[in-house]
Design goal:
- It comes from Mariniphaga sediminis.
- This protein has 403 residues and is α/β, with parallel strands linked by helices.
- It has one domain: Alpha-Beta Barrel (TIM Barrel), CATH 3.20.20.80.
- Strands 1, 2, 3, 4, 5, 6, 7, 10, 11 and 12 form a ten-stranded mixed sheet that branches. Strands 8-9 form a two-stranded antiparallel ribbon.
- The longest helix is centred in the N-terminal third of the chain and has 20 residues.
- The relative contact order is 0.14.
Length: 403
């Protein structure tokens, strides 16, 4: 009964915002045109957990995804800026009508690319509903392009608030796959996604990002085997009638070392990325390469320095990354250190301007900028409207990137 009430609340709020989104300030209809050409490609990562998925009930037994965790969120200390709640309500993001609303809101504010976190565990995909049943079935999905980031990390009980962070936080699924499984994954991606007219490309090549290089190398058996597998993937894409792949690596700290399937260190991240022949680089979250338990304005100073270092260290493009914030306390009953402070929309906007300036200084590469994220509510890094700031984060994107 509780589930039905929650879904009804989401539907009522959705209906109101969907109707509002079709009319601009002058009473004119919006959201019906194809993807608008803008100077920058602003790509927001999408965490596809906010919809019913039977396999996900191991973490969220109520049956409507990680909204269950968001609903239970409470502050952990005086001044803790929690709970954060969605202004649109607890929407089902695997519903094409919901997806149409989200696409219009994103495109109208300058977010013209979605990077979907994409999962594969135990021989089958996981959490594909948002992409397959929502975005791909939306009538306006030509307004916002999409591409995939293979989130090939291990899964423990972090997504399960009842057990997250406790001593029994055991491994549930491994992200590493062997060569046979890798080929199965690649064929699915080529046929099901790469050929879609809204798939995002660079120089005509579909983009594909890999989240965890350590997991990739461990599963495939070593650096040589991984290079062979990636070359095979490129060739299969060409055989399918496409121009190849724009393969992107999701970076960690500059001091990050990569290991083989036996845990032996095989090299620094920069050396391995070059050896594997990636075409581009970005990050997923500030937390992966910058100290985040401090003021947002201090964080972005270090972030800008890291962009400069990467620009000097690599011959391939680095696409500047901006995170809205970080605080994953909603996923835990106990307090977890590491909370970004002072990150209202006006400070987030300063980071966006940094990214825009970086893109302007690199006219020979695609003006692609990645943002964490569209909807990481339980990591407190989202663009979607919330009850605290309204459309503030989206308006910041619009002011910086939409003329």
């Amino acid at each position: 009964m509780k589930t039905k009430r929650v879904e009804y609340l989401g539907f009522v709020l959705l209906l109101g915002f969907a109707l509002l989104s079709k009319v601009d300030a002058k009473g004119q209809k919006t959201g019906t045109a194809s993807i608008q050409k803008q100077q920058y490609d602003v790509a927001a990562f999408v965490w596809p957990s906010y919809h019913p998925d039977d396999r996900a009930k191991i973490f969220w037994p109520a049956g409507f995804g990680e909204w269950e965790t968001v609903m239970k969120n409470k502050p952990k200390y005086d001044g803790h800026e929690q709970p954060r709640q969605p202004l649109w309500g607890y929407i089902n993001e695997a519903d094409p009508y919901v997806a149409e609303m989200e696409i219009n809101a994103a495109a109208d504010h300058g977010v013209n690319v979605f990077i979907f976190d994409w999962y594969w565990y135990d021989g089958m995909p996981f959490l594909e509903g948002h992409l397959n049943d929502g975005y791909l079935q939306a009538k306006n999905n030509d307004r916002v392009k999409f591409y995939l980031m293979w989130a090939n990390h291990d899964v423990d009980l972090t997504w399960d608030k009842r057990n997250a962070g406790k001593p029994n936080d055991d491994l549930i699924w491994k992200g590493a796959v062997d060569r046979d499984e890798f080929e199965k994954i690649c064929h699915r991606i080529i046929e099901k996604y790469f050929k879609h007219p809204s798939y995002y490309t660079i120089d005509g090549k579909p983009c594909f990002m890999i989240y965890d290089l350590n997991s990739l190398i461990a599963g495939l058996g070593g650096i040589t085997e991984t290079k062979e597998a990636l070359d095979w993937f490129r060739n299969e894409t060409v055989k399918a009638g496409l121009k190849g792949i724009n393969l992107q690596a999701c970076l960690r700290s500059s001091k990050f070392r990569l290991s083989d399937n036996k845990g032996n260190v095989i090299g620094m991240q920069a050396d391995v990325v070059k050896e594997l022949g990636f075409d581009g680089l970005s990050h997923y979250q500030f937390v992966h390469f910058a100290g985040i338990d401090r003021d947002y304005l201090d964080i972005i100073e270090d972030v800008e320095k890291e962009w400069t270092r990467l620009d000097q260290a690599f011959d391939i493009p680095y696409y500047p990354h901006v995170s809205v914030g970080w605080d994953n306390n909603p996923r835990f009953e106990m307090f977890r250190p590491g909370v970004v402070k002072n990150n209202p929309p006006e400070n987030f906007e300063k980071a966006l301007k940094m990214a825009r300036d970086y893109a302007d200084k690199h006219p020979n590469q695609y003006p692609l900028i990645t943002i964490n994220s569209w909807n990481e509510w339980t990591e407190t890094s989202y663009l979607q409207p919330c009850t605290m700031y309204g459309y503030g984060y989206l308006e910041a994107v619009r002011r910086v990137f939409v003329k």
